[in-house]
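Researcher: Sequence of ABC transporter ATP-binding protein follows. Predict its structure.
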Amino acid sequence: MLIEAENICRSYRNGGSRIEAVKDCSFSVREGEFLAITGPSGSGKSTLMSILGLLERQTSGKFRIGGQDTGHMSADIRAGLRNQILGFVFQSYNLLPRLTAQENIELPMTYAGVRAATRRTRAVELLRKVGLEERQAHFPNQLSGGEQQRIAIARALANSPQLILADEPTGALDSEKGAQILDLFQEINKAGRTIVVITHDEDVACRADRILRMKDGCIIEDELVLTPHYQADTAKAASFVRHPELRGTGLQPRRPE
Ligand SMILES: Nc1ncnc2c1ncn2[C@@H]1O[C@H](COP(=O)(O)OP(=O)(O)O)[C@@H](O)[C@H]1O
Ligand SMILES: [Mg+2]
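Model: Prediction complete. Tokens:
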């Protein structure tokens, strides 16, 4: 298992009161899975993702990544894992405005101590992958929203992370641009990367293999989706259907309408 969350809770103190943003959430994510977390605004999706992304700690419960308990990890180890095995994509792109598209993509590799020549080659390769080779020297404010999001995805892929976490990656885009981003996620997933995408958009969620639905901090449903893309990938579909975790859970593979 790539991710195992056991009875995770996260509460915030707000003046005198306590907000329980995430309540008793348990689930796991296997290598190669494309998981969507959905639910209304305020249901705890971003808080849960901050925990998965080692940006925040749960108040209680266990969180393991690659079989390792993260509870006792030092801040340095957590930062190292974030840089090496996680890639983040945010709704608002979070590109650095004074760096070019290529320099933004190179940044995680700089942090990881990759040599300049290697960084450059890899950044150009990633620019090609997201279809923005000719935008390499552009600054973020010279790019459209869809282009900035594609640069942000290229940046998230820079260190070849095992797990990509995306929080509302298509939230700021029109449906056509959003669909392009989702095509890209599906392609990345087919190439073997695990993806967790947060969305409140059903159309986005239906691109995933599996949907976790949240409400008031709780996971209220854990549903398998057999997308056409996924049905075509029979080996992957079979591994899901055969997976012992599914037995006895009442989870039914659902065919698309
Ligand atoms: N840093 C924080 N301090 C206090 N309350 C927070 C904080 N982050 C989130 N919350 C609260 O936790 C709940 C869940 O928020 P969030 O995880 O952002 O939900 P979602 O991403 O589903 O919209 C909300 O009620 C929100 O106001
Ligand atoms: Mg959110």
